[in-house]
TrEMBL record:
Species for this entry: Oceanobacillus picturae
Gene name as annotated: pstS
GO biological process: phosphate ion transport
Record text on subunit structure and interactions: The complex is composed of two ATP-binding proteins (PstB), two transmembrane proteins (PstC and PstA) and a solute-binding protein (PstS).
NCBIfam families, A to Z: ptsS_2
Similarity section: Belongs to the PstS family.
Superkingdom of source: Bacteria
Membrane-topology annotation of the record: Lipid-anchor
Range of residues in the leader sequence: 1-20
Record-given protein name: Phosphate-binding protein
Length: 336
């Protein structure tokens, strides 16, 4: 009996040791899970840091056809050299049409614009709770173009140019401007109302006076290039970039602002330069709300302001002062 009791005591003691050991293992596993959780947290943090360096997702841009070559070039370079996992989609509906896509819920991330946002457009943004950020990206020179065979209207004053496009300009033929010029009817063309270039020409150059009723207004700049290139009596206007890329089929009118004719060029296009009266800044507008929610949108905005001056010249724009670009970049850095 005593022997059996002794065996029972030994058995109970053995079980107690096993239970204690299991409890110790359980604590070790629990401690290991906490450590692993800490390591997992570190891994997640590292992954988050990696995501900031290697981003994914889309950036959607629409708007100005004038700004399109610059933004398209920047997008190409960004996707190739900076963020291969980000798709930057650039379209060119025109400044005004682009703002309609920008100023809606879940609209585009950026709207390129060859003019500043209008009061009514800003009011729409405020109504929708969309915070916008204007980014000045380059300088463009409004360029008046004619057929290469036109050897008479190669130099004109702003007043002569305006007389061709104004409803009450009193000009129908080239000889109406200068009796020594051909007695041939002038065929004016230009971008339509969707484009900021149209609005700049109408509001700034023509001072909001009516255009001639028979002007041929088009959505596509390539169509305007063709219309002028195919007609010795045509005259049109658009951004300098579309001229510089079609010099084989167009020629630019040199404009005499009072001190001799000035040829539009990257050297003369400036807000305080020889071509200042026909120079304008161009922009992209950022949806700040979406920049705060989508890292790739803010990252692309920073890339644009860090690199726009490097690609301005090759796409037909004059660069903005470097201090302006830097100040805008600093504003973007402050977005949380």
């Amino acid at each position: 009996m005593n022997f059996k009791r002794f065996l029972m005591i030994l058995l109970i003691a053995g079980l107690a040791v096993v239970v204690a050991a299991c409890g110790s293992d359980s604590e070790d596993e629990s401690g290991s899970e906490t450590s692993s959780g800490s390591e997992s947290g570190s891994s997640e943090e590292a992954s988050a840091e990696g995501d900031s360096a290697e981003l994914e997702g889309n950036v959607v841009i629409d708007g100005s056809g004038t700004v399109y070559p610059l933004m398209s070039r920047l997008a190409e370079e960004y996707m190739t050299t900076e963020q291969e996992g980000v798709s930057v989609e650039v379209s060119r509906a025109g400044t005004s049409a682009g703002f309609e896509k920008f100023l809606v819920e879940d609209g585009t991330d950026f709207n390129d614009a060859s003019r500043q946002i209008k009061d009514e457009e800003q009011a729409k943004a405020d109504e929708l709770g969309i915070e916008t950020k204007e980014l000045k990206v380059a300088l463009d020179g409004l360029t008046v173009v004619i057929h290469p065979d036109n050897d008479w209207a190669t130099e004109m004053t702003p007043e002569e140019i305006k007389s061709i496009f104004l409803a009450d300009g009193g000009v129908e033929t080239w000889s109406d401007i200068n009796p020594e010029w051909p007695d041939e009817e002038i065929n004016p063309v230009g971008p339509n109302e969707n484009h900021g270039t149209y609005e700049f020409f109408y509001e700034t150059i023509l001072e909001e006076q009516d255009l001639v009723s028979d002007i041929n207004l088009q959505q596509e700049y390539s169509t305007l290039v063709t219309l002028v290139a195919d007609d010795p009596n045509a005259i049109g206007f658009f951004g300098f970039g579309y001229y510089i890329n079609n010099q084989d089929s167009l020629q630019a009118v040199n404009v005499d602002f009072g001190n001799g004719a000035v040829e539009p060029s990257l050297d003369t296009i400036a807000e305080d330069g020889d071509y200042a009266d026909f120079t304008r800044p161009v922009f992209t507008y950022l949806n700040v709300n979406q920049a705060k929610e989508k890292a790739q949108v803010l990252d692309y905005a920073k890339y644009v302001m860090s690199n726009a001056n490097d690609f301005a010249g090759e796409t037909g724009f004059a660069p903005i002062p470097e201090e302006e670009a830097q100040a805008q970049l600093e504003d973007l850095e402050a977005i949380q």
